């Protein structure tokens, strides 16, 4: 997805050797901890920034190195790591794919156990660049997992394209409010409220709302670890 794109990537980074700093030299000493993000930036932005920095360093990459792998401007990556920029869905999917990670790895804030209640008022959504497509995690953003559960919302006329996720990724979508059009490797599929679809998401795919009201989808995404 540009939820992206998000979707499923190997849980283990390519290289688990040293933990470099933020400079252009991957072998440079670790930098000092970044300053706390401004109060206006929500907690999720800080979590994403910390995770991105940790995974990048774990793979022995500088900011410039990750920029070359992902095609994302290094200044934007630095702003995300420092908690100064709230990334959109497409950017997170692209970064996750470049690092061979699952989308949720960049959102996770640690291990979880027992029962977790997720209040809608306390949840955080990620949006597309144009703001017409949103993704809200319906599972605790803690720990590693093979299955993720999302609520997707598409404004009237929204057309969201997603690059293919890592091999073996599967998306299972239930339409809570429609109509919607799902584009897969097999073509375009129109779904109405209550319809569902299962498809391989390791190839480019997309989500469209041809209606005049907001569409709501429930997505279960599964990974091969």
Per-chain topology:
Blueprint: H1 43-58, H2 63-70, H3 74-81, H4 89-98, E1 125-127, E2 133-137, E3 147-154, E4 159-162, E5 170-177, E6 180-184, E7 187-191, E8 196-200, E9 205-208, E10 215-222
Antiparallel strand pairs: 1-2, 2-3, 3-10, 4-9, 5-8, 5-10, 6-7, 6-9
Short description:
This protein is an alpha+beta fold. 19% of the residues lie in helices and 24% in strands.
List keywords for this structure.
225 residues, alpha+beta, 4-stranded antiparallel β-sheet, globular, disordered N terminus
Structure in words:
This protein has 225 residues and is an alpha+beta fold. The protein contains 4 helices and 10 strands; from the N terminus they run H-H-H-H-E-E-E-E-E-E-E-E-E-E. It has helices at residues 43-58, 63-70, 74-81, 89-98, and strands spanning 125-127, 133-137, 147-154, 159-162, 170-177, 180-184, 187-191, 196-200, 205-208, 215-222. The strands form 2 sheets. A 6-stranded antiparallel beta sheet has the order 1-2-3-10-5-8, with no helix packed on it. A 4-stranded antiparallel beta sheet has the order 4-9-6-7, with no helix packed on it. It is globular, with a radius of gyration of 18 Å. The two termini are 19 Å apart. The model is unreliable at 1-41 (pLDDT under 50).
Morphology call: globular
What fraction of the residues are assigned to beta strands by DSSP?
15-25%
H/E series, N to C?
A: HHHHEEEEEEEEEE
Would you tell me the overall average pLDDT?
78
Structural class: alpha+beta
Radius of gyration: 18 Å
Specify the number of helices.
4
- Unreliable parts: 1-41
Strand arrangement, major sheet: 1-2-3-10-5-8
The helix fraction, in percent, is: 10-25%
The description of the largest β-sheet is:
6 strands, antiparallel
Q: State the total count of DSSP E strands.
A: 10
Determine the N-to-C terminus distance: 19 Å
